[in-house]
Design brief:
Elements lengths: L1 E3 L2 H11 L5 E6 L5 H13 L2 E6 L19 H10 L4 E3 L3 H4 L17 H5 L3 H16 L3 E5 L3 H13 L5 E5 L19 H6 L2 H14 L5 H15 L3 E9 L11 E10 L4 E10 L1
Parallel strand pairs: 1-4, 2-3, 2-5, 3-4, 5-6
Antiparallel strand pairs: 7-8, 8-9
Helix pairs in contact: 6-7, 9-10
């Protein structure tokens, strides 16, 4: 396994590899968990070369967000990648990726004014900008993203389509703990009481799915039920509970077609997100 920190070296190696190999790419900000490992394993199944980027991207953090405190453990990440058979880790510094103030940034026009994008202006512009750079540097045939951050999947789908990247986006289902909590690097910031409460987020989503399967189509009723369940069973503060079409993330009048039910809950030191995507007749 190679660890590359230099853009020029990364480009030269990819140019050589692309002649005879397919490349699967897993973009991450490190502190790898089981969710990332599933992406890596899926990438290795169908690609000749698997590349994992580990880069905490400052462009996607707001002024009051947790860039400095975002969990990092590069040595452990390297060990995990080696065990999983990753071929290359791309681990550039911030200075390497952004040596000068950017004269060009990617501006995301749609799918960002709801869910996390509503309270994090500029976040997805930062995501789209760094991925545009990484796509050009790594030239992947396929990119693997987890559905835990379904809005990111929707935005990246639009990025790839609109800018004509010759890349196939492979969304991978959310990986969960045994009690249903979506695996996340931020889970380590939950205190013991919050960790016991956090699975109620997913349970509320499952209860909503049951209601839909039983015939409920009223969005307001479903949102109210979800909020009541989370409020009663956790100490977290609800950021949002919303239902939209997916992947367009457009407002809908009733539950029909392919939809997403998405939740964000703020605990003391961790903001957790989760969702389910359903096809409803």
């Amino acid at each position: 396994m190679k660890i590359i920190t230099n853009i020029t070296e990364m480009q030269a190696l990819v140019k050589e590899l692309k002649n005879t190999n397919s490349i699967g790419f897993v973009p991450t900000m490190g502190y790898l968990h089981e969710g990332h490992l599933q992406l890596i394993r899926k990438a290795r199944e169908v690609n000749d070369i698997t590349i994992v980027s580990i880069f905490v991207n400052p462009l996607q953090f707001g002024p009051n967000e947790d860039f400095a405190s975002y969990p990092r453990d590069f040595e452990r990440d390297v060990s995990v990648c080696r065990e999983e058979g990753v071929d290359i880790i791309f681990n550039p510094s911030v200075a390497e990726m952004y040596p000068n103030p950017l004269s060009v940034k990617v501006l995301v026009q749609a799918r960002t004014d709801v869910l996390c994008g509503d309270s994090r202006p500029g976040h997805f512009d930062g995501v789209a900008t760094v991925l545009t750079k990484l796509f050009h540097l790594i030239l992947p045939d396929r990119v693997y993203l987890g559905m835990k951050d379904a809005q990111q999947v929707a935005v990246v789908e639009g990025l790839i389509a609109d800018l004509n990247f010759p890349i196939e986006l492979i969304p991978i289902p959310t990986v969960r703990e045994e009690d249903g909590l979506a695996k996340s690097s931020r889970n380590v910031n939950l205190n013991s009481e919050e960790r016991q409460q956090a699975p109620e987020i997913y349970r509320a989503l499952l209860e909503a799915r049951k209601k839909i399967e039983a015939g409920e189509r009223n969005i307001e009723s479903l949102v109210t039920m979800i909020k009541n369940n989370i409020t009663k069973k956790t100490s977290g503060t609800i950021d949002y509970v919303e239902i939209y079409s997916f992947p367009e993330l457009q407002t809908i009048e009733k539950v029909k077609g392919k939809i997403i039910i998405a939740i964000a809950v703020q605990f003391t030191k961790a903001r957790l997100i989760d969702n389910i995507v359903l096809a409803v007749e």
